[in-house]
Amino acid sequence: MGSPVDAPAPGARSRSVSAALFSAATGISRVLGLVREIISAQLLGVSGPASAFVVANNVPNTTRSLVADSALGASFVPVFNELLVKGERERAWRVASSALTLAVIALTVLTILGIVFTRPLLSFANLSGEQLELTVTMTRILFPILILLGIAGLVQAILNSFDEFVLPAIAPVFWNAVIIGFLVYAFTADELDRRAVILAVGTLVGTVVQTVVPLPGLRGKGATLRPLIDLRDPAVRRILVLLIPVALGLGLANVNLTVSTYIATYVDPAYAPRAIDAAFRIYMLPQGIFSVAVSTIMFPLMARAVAAHDLVRLRGALAEGARLILYLLLPASAVIAVLATPIVELLFQRGAWTAAETPGVAQAVVAFSLGLALNGLILLFTRCLFALQHVWVATGIALVNLLAAVTLSLLLYEPFGVWGIPLANSIANAVVVPLMWIVLRRRIGALDTLPVVAAGLRMLALSLVAALIAWGVWRGADSVLGDGLLGLIVGVGLAIAISGGAYLLATRALGFAEADRILALLRRRREPA
User: Fold this and answer.
1) What is the pTM of this model?
2) How far is CA 510 from CA 302, 442, 517, in A?
3) How far apart are CA 51 and CA 277, in angstroms?
């Protein structure tokens, strides 16, 4: 595959295909993630070792969210693409090698410090005795994922710069599959402590596999990565400067979720945090499949437009991405909202999860779904600001989003209970999206606001119709098959499939280009190899 300099940028149809393939791989990973969680719950239940693993896994992952993978890649892509657009291929690869070498050194130091000072890091947790010792052991097992995810994040950023998206998206599928394999093996252990340690080892091994899978994609890109540090290169220094605000901007999303969970303990410490977490996992399924795919694929395209000083192409890419996110996530949010209860029953209601615990989670799912498309737009707009290298602006907006969500959560959790907290997050998204749009207009010129809004309103109307269809199909299947597992699988599956198909055909009949691209992709998949 040629570089962005040698080959023309992919067209809209090509990007739609890439987005669909990326979404398919991400969707498989998300489904496997749900399987992983179901097996893990069956394996460990709600127990001391299960809580110990959550705490142990949280320590390195909090650090990872700030310094590794996404933040490193987001600060690297604009600089790397700018060098490629300028024709400085050799220098681009030197910069990539320097960035990787510095990342590995820094993350190795952090890993060593984390392993040495594990006990002080865990002092904030209310742990003691055997549970504390188990948590210390698993935290030390898991800390090396920092190094691995730093490498994986940079490799993914390089591949994305060459419009290679599918291979990095497949890597998490292997990660989940490896962990599921270790979970199955853990059933052979009688002690819960040993099962938890096996899960920790499986998480580390899965991360190794996830890091290795995308590496073959670097072949044929014109150069190789090698150990190198060149701090004299201004491009390397620029990546380091960009990394701090980018890390803060992306890391604040994790802080938001953490604060929401903390506030939830004031609603019901035994139920609310877990209810919101379960609803959030359902919410993240379409978010990860669609909006992450679109923003990931559009990011290098926007970065190249910025490097070429082509604001017309940048505005076009932003409008195209916004329309595609609305097209995909508006019907997803509407259908999830009306099917919230059967979806929760299908995914979680078994074993220790009783019918009495489902309604609160379903309400939280509905509240989260109200902000689904808006959050997708925030992801896209944030990537656009990163492409423009206005990283402190993105960080400031992320802080506004956090403050709005926390303030609204404090106001809404008492009158509304569990679902008041995700509702607060959705309202905060509604505040931030127009703010980001205004900021982007001031930086890149007039955007196609009215056409995008008009298209979004039409998509919303059709999404509501799709939701009514989904509800009708579900009620019909439920009346015939009942609410057993088979009835849930068939009812939810048919409701999603039929309502999705109706939405696709209706939008095509009304001339939406997004529908034509998806139908073209489906026809292409049916063609014999």
Assistant:
1) 0.68
2) 29, 32, 14
3) 14
